[in-house]
C-alpha cells in the first residue's frame, strides 16, 4: 500500500521538517570533523555543541567543547570536554585559573566512557573517571 498525502498543504511542511533535520545533523557532523564544537556559556545548554561532542565520541573523532560555568563568588570555572581519536576515552580539563576564590589550578579528569542520561537529552554521565590526587578508586561524574 502506498501512502500519499491527500492535501498538498500537508506535504510541504513535512518535507521542510525532514530537510531541516537533515541539515542540522549535517552541520553537527561537519563541526565534529573540525574538532571544535563551540562554547556553552552561563548554564544555558548549547545543544549543537553537545550533539557535536557526542558525535565525536560515538565516531572516535577528536572533538572539543568548552563549558563556561559562572561561580557564586568570583570568576568562571571552565570545563573543556575532549574526545580522542581512535580511543573511547574522554578527558575533562577543569580550569579554575580565572576564579579568584579557588586554588587557581587546571585539573585533568580522565573517564573511560561517556553516556547520555537518556535518549532525548544531551546531559552526560562520565563513567569510571580518575583524577590525579583523588583517592578512592574510579568515580562517576555528571555534566
Main beta sheet: 7 strands, mixed
- Shape descriptor reads globular
User: If helices are DSSP runs of H or I spanning 4 or more residues, what is the number of helices?
Assistant: 2
- Strand content bin: 25-35%
Instruction: Give the integer mean of the pLDDT values.
Output: 78
SS-derived structural category: alpha+beta
- Rounded to the nearest angstrom, the radius of gyration is 19 Å
**Separation of termini?**
47 Å
Helix content: 25-40%
Produce the secondary structure layout.
Layout: H1 8-34, E1 36-41, H2 47-58, E2 63-69, E3 77-83, E4 90-95, E5 106-116, E6 124-131, E7 139-142
Parallel strand pairs: 1-2
Antiparallel strand pairs: 2-3, 3-4, 4-5, 5-6, 6-7
Helix pairs in contact: 1-2
Task: Please provide a written account of the structure.
It is a single chain. With about 140 residues, this protein is an alpha+beta fold. It has two helices and seven strands, in the order H-E-H-E-E-E-E-E-E. A seven-stranded mixed sheet has the order 1-2-3-4-5-6-7. Helix 1 crosses helix 2 (about 45-60). It is globular, with a radius of gyration of 19 Å. The termini are far apart. Residues about 10-35 have low confidence and may be disordered.
Amino acid at each position: 500500500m502506498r501512502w500519499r498525502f491527500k492535501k498538498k498543504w500537508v506535504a510541504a511542511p513535512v518535507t521542510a521538517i525532514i530537510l531541516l533535520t537533515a541539515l542540522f545533523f549535517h552541520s553537527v557532523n561537519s563541526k565534529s570533523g573540525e574538532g571544535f564544537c563551540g562554547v556553552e556559556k552561563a548554564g544555558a545548554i548549547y545543544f549543537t555543541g553537545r550533539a557535536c561532542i557526542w558525535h565525536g565520541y560515538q565516531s572516535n573523532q577528536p572533538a572539543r567543547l568548552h563549558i563556561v560555568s559562572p561561580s557564586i563568588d568570583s570568576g568562571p570555572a571552565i570545563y573543556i570536554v575532549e574526545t580522542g581519536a581512535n580511543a573511547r576515552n574522554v578527558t575533562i580539563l577543569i580550569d579554575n585559573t580565572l576564579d579568584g576564590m579557588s586554588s587557581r589550578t587546571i585539573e585533568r579528569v580522565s573517564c573511560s566512557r561517556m553516556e547520555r542520561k537518556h535518549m532525548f537529552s544531551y546531559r552526560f554521565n562520565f563513567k569510571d573517571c580518575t583524577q590525579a590526587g583523588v583517592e578512592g578508586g574510579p568515580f562517576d561524574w555528571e555534566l
